[in-house]
DNA sequence: TATTGTTATACTCTATAACTATA
DNA sequence: TATAGTTATAGAGTATAACAATA
């Protein structure tokens, strides 16, 4: 019951047919994510910034005293991974950890003065990059795209 | 010149302020990507499907005889990684590789009958999943979101 | 018993450089 | 010289299970 293959036209570079895959949300998301990371590192690697790291430090900047688990939940980073991130930040002197009196299982996190300076020194570059990520789209389209992604995320 | 921290309100679960990060395209993309992967595996792990693997097999299904490098370029998968993926598919008997006469450096890839059957047995589940990925949005919003992502990708 | 954070382990994806064989 | 694919190696990021301390 196997069907004979049609003669194979030679394919190179970009004449490759994505078929239905080209309108799959998951597929275009994955491709777009690759693009997002590439432009991020092109623009910001000189500042020693990684997207995941900056998001953690930024949340500590905005929410001093946040608990480690709450931070992990919010950023959808798994706890074992968060432990490692936090350890590295502590070793670099960017954050301090303290055990709260009311629940001594937990860890409260705060930026040190050095940590706040680290964020302050980079937030302009980070958010300027952010503003230009969607320059291929009109202002209206860019707003719409972010709105729709936030709706998908139920943010 | 350091400014005293305000008293820290206790933060738990979801009252965590994302600040400007919450409208960063890169950030919401990364969060959405996590969600996309989670729902993918919830729905399709029973079929032994991984998104990257399926995309490779699907392109071979639609473009028999495609060159390995062209496939890597199209899917933005790095060549060393593609080599490994292809080796695994060959070991599983899903694809065959052949050296074209006109350029004996290359590798042309084709699904075997088993490989076509593998895709046939899974494409309905895959594309049905795809159709429901954006059920949180209206049909119009879903179309718009995919259109905007494709525009960002210059697809 | 359940929860917070930690440790250990492993797997995927990615990145780079060096290698081969062909062109 | 340049290109297609391979190998080797390393680093992120993630996943799971098992553990200690605390609730």
TrEMBL record, chains A, B:
InterPro entries: HTH_MarR-typ, MarR/SlyA-like, WH-like_DNA-bd_sf, WH_DNA-bd_sf. SUPFAM superfamilies: Winged helix' DNA-binding domain. The lineage of its organism: Bacteria, Pseudomonadati, Pseudomonadota, Alphaproteobacteria, Rhodobacterales. This is Transcriptional regulator, MarR family. It comes from Primorskyibacter flagellatus. It comes from the Bacteria. PROSITE patterns: HTH_MARR_2. Residues 18-154 form the HTH marR-type domain. One of its GO terms (molecular function) is DNA-binding transcription factor activity. GO terms for biological process: response to stress. Gene3D superfamilies: Winged helix-like DNA-binding domain superfamily/Winged helix DNA-binding domain.
């Amino acid at each position: 019951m196997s069907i004979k293959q049609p003669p194979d036209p030679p394919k190179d570079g970009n004449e490759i047919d994505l078929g239905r895959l080209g309108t799959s949300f998951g597929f275009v998301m994955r491709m777009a994510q690759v693009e997002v990371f590439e432009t991020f590192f092109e623009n910001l690697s000189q500042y020693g910034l990684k997207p995941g790291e900056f998001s953690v430090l930024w949340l500590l900047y905005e929410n001093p005293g946040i608990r480690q688990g709450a931070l992990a939940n919010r950023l959808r980073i798994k706890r074992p991974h968060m432990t490692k991130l936090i350890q590295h930040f502590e070793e670099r002197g960017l954050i301090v950890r303290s055990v709260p009196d009311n629940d001594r299982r937990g860890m409260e996190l705060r930026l040190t003065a050095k940590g706040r300076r680290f964020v302050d020194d980079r937030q302009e570059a980070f958010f300027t990059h952010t503003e230009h990520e969607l320059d291929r789209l009109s202002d209206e389209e860019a707003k719409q795209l972010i709105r729709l992604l936030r709706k998908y995320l139920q943010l």
